[in-house]
Amino acid sequence: MIVRVFVTYDIPDKGIKMLIEHGCEVDVYKGEEFLPKEEMIKRAADADALITQLRDQVDREFVYSLKKTKIIANYAVGYNNIDVDAAKERGIYVTNTPGVLTEATADIAFALLLAVARRIVEADRFVREGKFVGWKPKLFLGYDLFGKTLGIVGMGRIGQAVARRALGFGMNIVYHNRRRLPEHIERQYHAKYLSLEELMKVSDFITIHTPLTKETYHLIDGEKISLMKPTAILVNTARGPVVDEQALYEALKEGRIAGAGFDVYENEPELTPGLEKLNNVVLLPHIGSATYETRERMSEMVALNIIDVMEGRIPRNLVYEI
Ligand code: GLV
Ligand code: GLV
């Protein structure tokens, strides 16, 4: 039997090669523009396996249009773009790429913390515009990270990787998580568990690392933002809708908080109008896992999950319990 794999957007080669070596027929959409949903559905209909991207809305309609598909391997750790319940109903496995992008994403969270706190992007622009006429005592003053309190919202793999970096920078760590972590892990990071409200109040920096679920939609809403210190900075490298972006924009615009770093947006790729005009924000195009090494490992991982299914095993990164 020929196993047909449809890849909705071109990904690094490694996994594609592995699938071909395993005898799969791999159909990779190579266009630059995203495939319209109807076309995606058409090309996916006869595929035994799909490799999807986090921006593909694999909703109930899509899932129910699949005729032969046994596995949807999402090329991402987050899988809020897939109707997992519908897939489960139809006996289709859904897998993700946990673990391999933890360090790369933690790096981007930290890069944003530093970039906002030290006004890196603004300062770069200033030099390019020929405005640098010499050292000045008050030129581009920002905030220290050293000695400050970092609030980590979502203390999973990525949150903990950020905590390791923060320790090296001499920060105090507080965190909030759905479930409190075992004491030995808290001790490892000198991390103190707080309610989300407390965390918002005491943190100088806040970084978001929760998945997007019904429970975390607008977890950081206007009310939570209003608890932040006027000198505080918030960074989101998780999923846009975890934060009420309009409320955050208003707080930034009115100077109620000091700054924010975005790698993700509530209505990605759209920004809340006006966000791009603010100086106290750094805006990235969802590049948390965008390193050569990580994207290659993610490619390998989606392939391994598909090969698991071809060979009659339960895929290693199944996102739901059977
Ligand atoms: C990226 O956002 C991912 O979920 O992998
Ligand atoms: C991602 O790897 C996470 O679950 O934190």
Structural notes for this entry:
The strands form 2 sheets. A 7-stranded parallel sheet has the order 8-7-6-9-10-11-12, sandwiched between helices. It has a 5-stranded parallel sheet with strand order 2-1-3-4-5. The protein has helices at residues 13-21, 37-44, 60-65, 84-89, 102-117, 120-128, 157-168, 183-188, 196-202, 222-225, 245-253, 292-310, and strands at 4-7, 25-28, 49-52, 71-74, 93-95, 149-153, 172-176, 191-193, 205-208, 233-236, 259-262, 281-283. The chain is built from 12 helices and 12 strands. The mean pLDDT is 97. With 322 residues, it is an alpha/beta fold. The two termini are 26 Å apart. The chain folds into 2 domains: 3-99 and 292-310, Rossmann fold; 102-283, 3-Layer(aba) Sandwich (Rossmann fold).
